[in-house]
Hints:
- This protein is of the alpha+beta class.
- The protein has helices spanning 3-53, 103-124, 164-173; strands at 58-65, 72-80, 86-95, 98-100, 137-138, 145-146, 151-158, 178-184, 190-193, 200-202.
- A hairpin with a 6-residue loop joins strand 1 and strand 2.
- Helices cover 40% and strands 27% of the residues.
- Helix 2 (103-124) packs antiparallel against helix 3 (164-173).
- The protein is rod-shaped.
Amino acid sequence: MSETQESQSNQSQWSFAEKLNLLIAVCAILISAASFYATFLQADAAEKQVRAATWPMLEYGHGNAAEGSFKPLVYLEVVNGGVGPAHIQTFTYHWKEKTYTHIGQLLKDCCIEAGQEINKLKSEFPELASQLITAGISINPHGRVLSSGNKIKVFQLPENKITAPLWNKLNQVRWEITASTCYCSVLEDCYKTDFESPPTQVSSCKVD
């Protein structure tokens, strides 16, 4: 075999070896990429499962009877209908185009006449005044953590001889009171809602 033929043969052999190595390298890269993508999809699915398992959903409601006993009780409440705890960051009430951060402020505007009537009853019947001490409660939901399936009575007032004027007024006004809130999950995913539309995810809750 001449030197020229031997050189051509060696070039042909090295060319085949190089092509084979290149093919193996490309296959390795493709396998690594596929493995990485599969790992990414698995991690993404796991993250979505965790988020789904910790997703809170707050609901707002009201009523005029105690659960179980059906005794007259005007109340406003927040329920966590989701599957994870909700950290309530902000909570506001709305009535007649006004916004309130505490139910007491709203009561002054909506029911001052009923309050004056209560004061009149207290002065006329001192023996009944003690009924008002434990009659009603209000809870500020700001900063509270509400676990899944639980509820908070943000305001409640039973009916008795002293509270009757305010109870009757609130039993009418409760249909006009709406609310809005911003809350976060344990993963710090935050949601804003007016309880009429589905919750909207936000980057964070602005605390006033």
